[in-house]
Amino acid sequence: MSLDTAHPAGALPAGADNRVVAAGGVRSWRELPELTLPAPAVVLAHSARYALAAARHHAAYGTELLITTAGRVDPAMRDELRDTGFTLVEADGPAEVAAPTRTRRAEAGRLWLLTSGTTGRPKRVGHTLESLTTVRGRQPDRTWLCPYTPGTYAWWQVVTLSLTQPGQHLVVVEPEQLDDWPALAAAHGVDAVSGTPTFWRRALHRDPDTLARVPLRQLTLGGEPVDQAILDRLRQVFPSARVSWIYASSEVGAAVVVHDGRAGFPVEWLDRAAPDRPTLGVRDGELVVTSPYHGAGLTGPVRTGDRVEVVGDRVLITGRLDTDEINVGGSKVSAGRVRDVLTAHPRVAWARVTARRAPLLGHLVVAEVVAHGSPSPRPDPPGAPDEAALVRWCADRLPDYAVPRRIRLLPEIPVKETLKSDV
């Protein structure tokens, strides 16, 4: 029986008594505020607490729902949503309502997600609570930190785990708490955290000592390309924890889960068919996924738009097709591979690699880097590298045409609302 019909209206799923920490208060799913929402509705959540209350409302009543934040919905999209029958509800309760300009019958059990918008304007992808719940077996008791933007696929992955699995407690991070999340995690007994590579790099760069004091047993990365450097640095700080990385998207769901501490996934996983598991393929250098967790209306192989390379026994996801490949005088450069070389430097906390137009060659490779300003625990000479040192580092490891011609040093790792900075 599906999760959408397993409980009567008003009842809650198995995780209802799990502890939930949001906006400074300690509650459970059962004790979150009761909402009265129209259907279909778009909840523009101004706080994590309200977003969780909306998720619980859907779990109990199956109301057609899209949860997001006001910052992700521009005026044109608001008009579009109202024109397709949605009521817009915002603030920390249904205090401000924008009625739909057209009405229609609500689709029971439907959840809508907005894509990240990295390739343009965000799109709506349809799911159900069942298709978003990809962890079904009994899990060790955990207290999870959820730093993701409400309503994103990654947010729903952590939220559905806590809603449907007893013993999976939840601590959510408001935007103003993001820089100090290790202290919040330590205060509430967090032992499992899911975040993007940028999220983890910022924590390692800002306050590695406080981060190391969080008693983590599970670390999960996703949402951006995951390189060996970030996996190794997390393993160094948390030698006894399980470090996992996940490839997932709103369109195809969770498609790759790797626990072996290595970047990429094994080549033998390609074109391997197994019941109730995604099938992975590569077509013209692009990752293709056939998934049981795909969004509504998607069937068969779905081209993901992500570029992959087979290196030895691993398949590496390097970045988006439309941004990863740089043409330098006819030679093809993977921005992701250059980024991996930079982040492998023991003094580099983060790097972003892009193209800059240039006469004759068409484009040149350029980069932005955030360097560690103090000695790391690794046995290397102290001191942050300068631009010339980083260029020499790349020149020793890359063909000449792939070496960045300009490297700009930034004081802090930039991050978007989606916790991403590189895609």
Counting helices, strands and paired strands, the structural category is alpha/beta
User: Segments where pLDDT lies below 50 for 5+ residues?
Assistant: 1-7, 374-381
The global form is globular
Number of helical runs?
A: 11
DSSP E strands, number:
24
Walk across the major sheet and give the strand order.
2-1-10-9-11-12-13-14
CATH class of one domain: Alpha Beta
Fourth CATH level, the homologous superfamily of one domain = ANL, C-terminal domain
Look at the structure and give the mean pLDDT: 89
Helical coverage, percent range: 10-25%
Indicate the radius of gyration in whole angstroms: 22 Å
Give the amount of beta strand, in percent. Answer: 25-35%
Look up the CATH topology of one domain. Answer: GMP Synthetase, Chain A, domain 3
First-last Cα distance: 38 Å
Q: Which CATH-level-2 architecture of one domain?
A: 2-Layer Sandwich
Q: How would you describe this structure in keywords?
A:
423 residues, alpha/beta, GMP Synthetase, Chain A, domain 3, eight-stranded mixed β-sheet
Would you kindly provide a brief summary of this structure?
The protein is α/β, with parallel strands linked by helices and 423 residues long. The chain has helices at residues 48-61, 75-83, 129-132, 153-164, 181-187, 197-206, 208-212, 228-237, 321-324, 335-343, 387-395; strands at 19-22, 25-28, 41-45, 65-68, 87-91, 96-98, 111-114, 124-127, 142-146, 168-172, 192-195, 218-222, 242-249, 253-258, 265-266, 279-283, 286-290, 302-311, 314-320, 325-328, 331-334, 348-358, 362-371, 406-409. The longest helix is centred in the N-terminal third of the chain and has 14 residues, at 48-61.
